[in-house]
Design brief:
19% strand; elongated; 14 helices; alpha+beta; 12 strands; 30% helix; 7-stranded mixed β-sheet
């Protein structure tokens, strides 16, 4: 297939830390503190808010979590509002955005060419071409460009959101790039690339399109082993979304609340409360149960596009003589980075599931094989089987079950 027949993927860029120390210090300067809270104590416990999206190796104290809830209530903040205030947002690190060699405003009002605030399994993030509420039949953003200069290029900065070692899924001063379908929430199974500061990272996207023939689609689900919209009774089905719903239901069942970083279901009522800081204890206690949740009903879609990636990096200071307009948009420093995300080629691998052999094809092939190897046809085989299992049995019954035949004599034969 050609690349213009499939959608350009969604790109999500996240900082690995949910709570930045410099933003925490800005927060405590003007925050209201409940009884028992001090600025120093607040700075110490605020990184615990990362417990919703990170593995907490030390179980937090319930007193600290209750104090965080009291501080947020005193300042009219929810957990989501606190993460937005204390974490890294798009405007903090995005400097220059370029697509197919043309620069565009990173936060413009455009259906496709823009970055917007989003969330992922890492917490607060920034996404390009992310449309979670769009049905599969909609027109996606498709690009007929490929190569290093044919995709999305971003120049960003790593300051002042430097790693402080107090929160974060990984100890890094860089960022994380997640490549996923435009409809999909950025889940852990999506291809991930780590971006280092003072380096240029090249992410080569390798899409794989899968589909089924009409003969496969009419088969029952037990035979085709993939989902069509009619199976679920909705227009759009995607396996990552199903896995996300499975995880979300597991969290709702065990913790009785909705975490800030997961999207709510479209048909879900607002009766389920939002998780508070104290609910982090439930997330920590059930961490491995959430990671190993059984979602056996989430089968692949019969028609889907999966994105895989490969990446390589090079130091920016090696580009003194590079001829590219991208490097003229900003003065590259040691705290900045460049990432290029593009299709590596103009063609896309396409896999199609077909019926290899139907019953009619099987009988035809068997008949041809018997005719060639044994010199007989299917009709001759049927006649042989009929003779063995029907005529032989009748013949056996007539000989051995009826008994010997006794000749009959008349009176004239006796006189003779």
């Amino acid at each position: 297939m050609s690349i213009h027949e499939i959608p350009f993927p969604g790109i999500t860029i996240c900082h690995p830390q949910n709570v930045m120390e410099y933003k925490s210090r800005e927060f405590v300067r003007s925050a209201k503190f409940p009884l028992g809270a001090t600025p120093e104590y607040t700075l110490e416990i605020l990184p615990l808010l990362a417990g919703f999206t990170e593995r907490q190796w030390i179980v937090p104290r319930i007193e600290d979590l209750e104090m965080i809830d009291a501080i947020l209530d005193a300042n009219n903040l929810t957990v989501k509002g606190a993460i937005d205030k204390l974490g890294t947002v798009c405007a903090d690190f995005l400097l220059v955005c370029v697509f197919a060699g043309k620069k565009f405003p990173c936060f413009q009002q455009h259906p496709y060419m823009k970055f917007e605030e989003s969330y992922s399994y890492l917490g607060a993030c920034c996404s390009f071409n992310y449309h979670p509420n769009t049905v599969a039949t909609a027109d996606f953003f498709k690009a007929n460009t490929f190569g290093i200069d044919g995709g999305l290029s971003v120049v960003g900065t790593g300051r002042p959101q430097a790693s402080d070692g107090r929160s974060g899924a990984i100890y890094s001063e860089g960022f994380v790039v997640i490549v996923h379908h435009p409809n999909d929430f950025a889940v852990e199974s999506a291809p991930t690339t780590y971006i280092d500061l003072k380096k240029e990272t090249f992410v080569d996207i390798q899409p794989i399109h899968s589909s089924c023939s009409s003969q496969v689609l009419v088969l029952p689900f037990a035979q085709r082993k993939c989902i069509i919209p009619a199976d679920k009774g909705k227009l759009n089905y995607r396996q990552p979304e199903c896995m996300l719903e499975c995880l979300r239901d597991e969290i709702h069942q065990r913790c009785q609340c909705h975490p800030f970083h997961l999207p709510r279901a479209s048909n879900q009522t607002n009766t389920l409360r939002n998780c508070r800081a104290v609910d982090i204890l439930c997330m920590v206690d059930n961490y491995f149960q959430f990671k190993t949740a059984k979602c056996d009903h989430c089968f692949p879609s019969c028609s889907d596009v999966v994105y895989k990636t490969t990446s390589f990096k090079m130091n920016i200071d090696q580009l003194d003589h590079a001829i590219d307009d991208l490097y003229t948009y900003t003065n590259i420093t040691d705290t900045e980075f460049v990432v290029r995300i593009f299709f590596g080629g103009q063609r896309v691998a396409a896999n199609k599931k077909i019926v290899v052999m139907s019953w009619i094809s099987l009988l035809s092939n068997l008949g041809g094989a018997f005719s060639l190897c044994l010199g007989m046809s299917i009709l001759s085989m049927c006649e042989i089987l009929f003779f063995i299992f029907v005529r032989m049995i009748k013949h056996y019954k007539r000989i051995f079950q009826v008994g010997p035949v006794i000749p009959k004599f008349n009176k004239n034969d006796e006189k003779k």
